[in-house]
Write a structure and sequence with these properties.
- With about 600 residues, the chain is of the alpha/beta class.
- Helices cover about 65% and strands about 10% of the residues.
- The strands form two sheets. Strands 6-7-8-3-9-10 form a six-stranded mixed β-sheet, sandwiched between helices. Strands 2-1-4-5 form a four-stranded antiparallel β-sheet, covered by helices on one side.
- Helix 7 packs antiparallel against helix 8 and helix 8 runs antiparallel to helix 12.
- The longest helix is centred in the N-terminal third of the chain and has 51 residues.
- The two termini are about 65 Å apart.
- The model has no long low-confidence stretch (mean pLDDT about 75).
Length: about 600
């Protein structure tokens, strides 16, 4: 239940809808009970039991409410009937219609306002989840499966939608309905009402015991749903490899097994939930049967009630049992939804280890250098960078080369604080980057990665990610520098061409040049190129390399490359091995040393 109080916190901006819902639920609950009470005069007219009341009754106290209503109804019947039972019956039926009309109007009004409350709350939960996901550290996505995260944002939030409505009914609507019905029942017969109240708790205890088993089962179902989505996401992402290696049947079998586990868990959970309805109904009928026996004896044997009052009481008792059944169903939904709420809140309450400083430096322009001072970085107890010392002067290009796993891409991720160093510090102009706000730090940098990260939108909007207020002329200049303008203008809609999912309507070279255009448009002080040409063919590489040379002019650049031919003109080449600098210098100097760098050159020349 504690999870739902946290979820309920998202309802605060919509408290006016909550207040209106409560107000109309009070009116609905009152008229729901009152609608049964007004049936009694009609039944008395039908059974010939109505009393003649010629003096207009007055309301004295709440304890005499039933007597007042009964006397007033009989007074009106007496006044209008004039010994005409048909006219009296018509009057009572008209009153019943008005009462039921008001009851349903208030019911609709309550549901109308709770819709805004529920959907508004869910809207804010989705926004909070999306904002949280976009603000998470990169390390989170290396540890968690994307499919599981998608399941939490979609399926778990949908589960909360149904459970959230149930808890609103549990806390407001149904208790009010029971409260007013019990008042009316007490006004008719205290004996019968107490008799009902003795039996109802037994049903509640039995149902709650079954409900306790729902949360662990529901949690397993939600986890398995995440596995299913993860399998789908991985399959779609790697479909070309699956087809190339004829692995369709293998992946289909794995998905079948995962789906089979979900099938079994879902059946078990839903069947346990389905038990609530027949169980609560049977318990209700049991209470009703005992009530008929005891109430019937009061009418037929002890003559303490008339038939009209007893039938009205039965209607009110049904009015108690129905919301009680609704509460038991809501409790089931809450138990089931508790698991979904826990998974959603786990995401929302995840701490981002990359924190903004409390008092960030008022950092302006990048003026001097970027310095790595005894920098070490470990991932899951594995040392990736080991006591690195390096200075990158403004306006120079520094290339990182070396065997795979040497820590090159890790260094590129440490500079913009996608990860934080484990030991030591990285400084810009003598300031620890952890003392600079993340926005100010990343504003200095433009990044081009090996995988061209593009979105299913127009070229114009993909470029404007770097600079939202960019003019058409600025975009033309940026794409011209990146050797992309010619192919963009050849497209059917030019800059307004939608490039498809991950830019798949473009070739690899076109996508990469578009990525470079985006970085050029930002005009960053520091350029980070992480294997920007390694996935390209020779022709595309030449065009992209020309674009990079243009972009890197008079700009501080950190370049990571496997193809060593692309970084021979760098001001400084750093050779990394097992997270340590083993060589550094210019191309000619490193060749002369006849060390690791020369071996790498020879290997690539041989290839």
């Amino acid at each position: 239940m504690s999870y739902f109080w946290k979820i309920f916190g998202f309802a605060k901006p919509f408290k006016k809808y909550m207040a209106l819902n409560v107000f109309f639920n009070i009116l609905y609950a009152f008229f729901n009970a009152f609608s049964f009470l007004v049936l009694m005069p009609m039944l008395e007219v039908l059974f010939g039991e109505n009393r003649v009341v010629e003096t207009k009754p007055s309301f004295n106290s709440a304890m005499d409410f039933k007597s007042f209503v009964s006397d007033r109804m009989n007074y009106e019947v007496t006044r209008f009937s004039n010994d005409d039972p048909e006219r009296a019956l018509l009057l009572v039926i008209s009153l019943i219609l008005v009462t039921f009309f008001l009851k349903n109007i208030f019911n609709y009004a309550a549901l109308f306002f709770i819709t805004f409350l529920r959907n508004g709350t869910l809207k804010d939960i989705r926004i909070a989840l999306y904002n949280k996901v976009t603000n998470m550290s990169m390390s989170h996505f290396t540890e968690k499966r994307k499919g599981d995260l998608m399941s939490r944002v979609s399926n778990d939030v949908t589960e909360i939608q149904y459970s959230f409505l149930s808890i609103i009914e549990l806390l407001i609507r149904e208790p009010l309905t029971i409260f007013f019905a019990l008042i009316m029942m007490f006004s008719i017969s205290a004996k019968l009402t107490l008799f009902v109240l003795i039996f109802v708790p037994f049903a509640g205890i039995l149902i709650s015991r079954i409900g306790k088993t729902l949360q662990p089962k529901s949690n397993k179902v939600q986890i398995e749903v995440g596995e299913v989505l993860a399998k789908i996401e991985e399959t779609i992402s790697g479909l070309n490899i699956i087809k190339a290696f004829r692995a369709e049947s293998n992946f289909q079998e794995k998905f079948k097994q995962t789906n089979q586990r979900l099938f079994k868990l879902s059946n078990s959970l839903i069947n346990r939930m389905n038990l609530s309805s027949p169980l609560s109904e049977f318990m209700g009928i049991g209470v009703f049967a005992v009530l008929l026996w005891y109430g019937g004896s009061l009418v037929l044997v002890e003559k303490q009630m008339n038939a009209a009052a007893f039938i009205t009481f039965l209607g009110l008792a049904y009015g108690v049992l129905t919301p009680a059944k609704g509460i038991s169903k809501a409790l089931y939904n809450i138990k089931k939804g508790n698991a979904a709420a826990a998974r959603v809140l786990e995401v929302l309450e995840t701490e981002n280890p990359i924190k903004n400083p409390k008092n960030p430096l008022d950092f302006g322009k990048f003026n001097k250098n970027i310095t790595f001072n005894d920098v070490s970085f470990s991932y899951e107890n594995e040392i990736v960078i080991d006591t690195l010392n390096l200075t990158i002067k403004k306006g120079t290009s520094v290339a990182l080369v070396g065997p795979s796993g040497g820590g090159k891409s890790t260094i590129a991720n440490l500079v913009p604080r996608f990860y934080d160093v484990t030991k030591g510090c990285i400084q810009i102009d003598g300031n620890d980057i952890r003392d600079i706000s993340k926005d100010d730090l990343r504003e200095l940098m433009g990044i081009v990665t090996q995988d061209s990260i593009l979105f299913n939108d127009s070229i114009r909007n993909n470029l404007r990610i770097a600079k939202p207020d960019a003019t058409d002329e600025e975009m033309r200049k940026a794409t011209q520098i990146a050797n992309a303008l010619s192919f963009i203008e050849a497209l059917p809609n030019g800059f307004d061409t939608v490039i498809g999912d991950q830019g798949n309507k473009l070739s690899g070279g076109q996508k990469q040049r578009l990525s470079i255009s985006r970085a050029v448009l930002k005009d960053p002080a520091v350029l980070i190129l992480d294997e920007a040409t390694s996935a390209l063919d020779t022709e595309s590489e030449r065009l992209v390399q020309d674009a990079l040379i243009q972009m890197m002019k008079n700009r501080t650049s950190l370049v990571i490359a496997h193809r060593l031919s692309t970084i021979q003109n760098a001001d400084l080449i750093i050779v990394l091995q097992n997270g340590k600098i083993v060589e550094k210098g210019k191309h000619e100097e490193l060749i002369a040393k006849k060390g690791v760098y020369k071996k790498l050159i020879e290997l690539q020349s041989f290839q």
